[in-house]
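Convert to structure. Protein one:
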Amino acid sequence: MLKEIHTAPLISYWLWYRVGSRNEKAGITGISHWTEHMMFKGTDAFPNGVLDKTISRDGGYWNAMTYMDWTTYFSTMPADKGELILRVEADRMQNGIFASEDVDSERSVIIAEREGNENSPMFRLDEAVQAAAYQKHAYQYEVIGSMEDLERINREDLYTHYKTYYVPNNAVICVAGDFETEAMIKQIKDLFGSIPRGPELPIVEQAEPKQKEEKRLTVKGPGETPFLRASYHAPETTSEDFFILTVLDSLLTGASNLNLFGGGISNKTSLLYKELVQKEMAVSVAGGLQATIDPFLYSIVMTIHPNHQPEDLITVLDQQIESVQNKLPEKSALARAVKQARALFAYGSESITNQAFWLGFSEMFDDYDWFTSYLDQLAAVTPQDVQRIARKYLRPENRILGIYLPDGNGGAQE
């Protein structure tokens, strides 16, 4: 996926693999994230530590991310320095070493990362809600994996995972910036063209029993602040319902950003901000709908005001949802919600790095046409659409309600 942009002498390179926590199971949860860590431990051609200094010296930046459906490696470099990144990615697609001592050292690093996450109330609450939301699908697992699995995964597990998923038939290269397409295609073919296809990829178990009644759970842990998370089973990103739910989210909680590199805009005109934050029932409220291959969750997260109880917020939440379900949204309010969602999307699509991001990100769950049609899809949403989707998805029997109650010990662990 190539996109010439000659506004600045920069090139952003992304290599995406269709593998994440969706491709895991009990016993090896967290293995995709751990494999990402191992890819920075070097190869014979590019030993560990050399590249960080080289890329920094050349004025570049590189990193990686693992998510539910994908893992991506990215860098943004001066246009005349970029070939190094392509050589590195072609090399580590085939020649990862996975030395036993590196496996052991990264085990300690990732376990420490997991322990740090456990000090976060929202991590604990998110993990509990996802586990309750799914019985079979791997979306029930956090990307970092369970502590039990992090302690038992071995070098053979990691190397097998790497050789299964880090193959050309499971990868997408995306480049945006100051280059000539014909020359870039030649570079990529020269470096990647001889890498053999991998085996057929394992099929992901997608069947998930339909939730028949509301689930409620309480998580206790460190901190001083209580939280409430209401999560509803939501459609996959390729569903036309996804775009309508995006607008409904903007109406209820303010526009949220799909771009992991994007910022945010004020949500003070949203329905729940007016009813919860302005009336001092909640300190904050935010919504989120994530782009996923399979149906995931639409979540509304509230920071509970010290003078109120979770049930107070649940009552107001239900009242506002019922209002949208029973009465068509005002055209002016809907127009504002659509405008905010469109603006946030546009803000997160401007830079060279972001444009390279969208080339690959949209390919992970659909194709680039999804990105190019996004704004038109939002603009086409009607009040009747919003009401229908609110009735379809925002039902108690489709909901997992999670409450986080702090023990008052600040950041100390249990």
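Protein two, convert as well:
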Amino acid sequence: MNVEDLLAVLSRWIHVGAAIALVGGTVFQRFVLAPSLAAIPETDRGPLREAVLARWRIFVHSGVALLLLSGAYNAMKGFVSHKGQGLYHGLLGTKIFVALAIFGVAVVLTGKSERAKTMRGRSGFWLSVLVVLATAVVCLSGVLRNLPAT
């Protein structure tokens, strides 16, 4: 295996690993943590919510950075191997656009601004949006991965 192949494999591992961590964490928050928080007294929710948010913020910011870096590398490799394939480029553009929307919502939800606090007031809705969009990205990724190269 040459250096270029090794870099491609490493980039893929980083990309998939970061995606698994962020999507899994989002699904956990939406379907496990949020309902569990609703079952405990309001006075106990705030400190727990803040402790989880402080740790989750690190995962989100690190994961987004890793996904942007590895995604840029993977996209460049895809552009070369699928040159002239309109379907591939259209689907990849759609995937990138949806991923950027996910990153924006996720970063705002972990933020400290008033806007972030307002969005977290409807966290069930926003976490559901993130789960749906992440599912779309995973589906697009599967299609892209199986389109034959030129």
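The chain is about 85% helix and 0% strand. The two ends are 22 Å apart (CA to CA).
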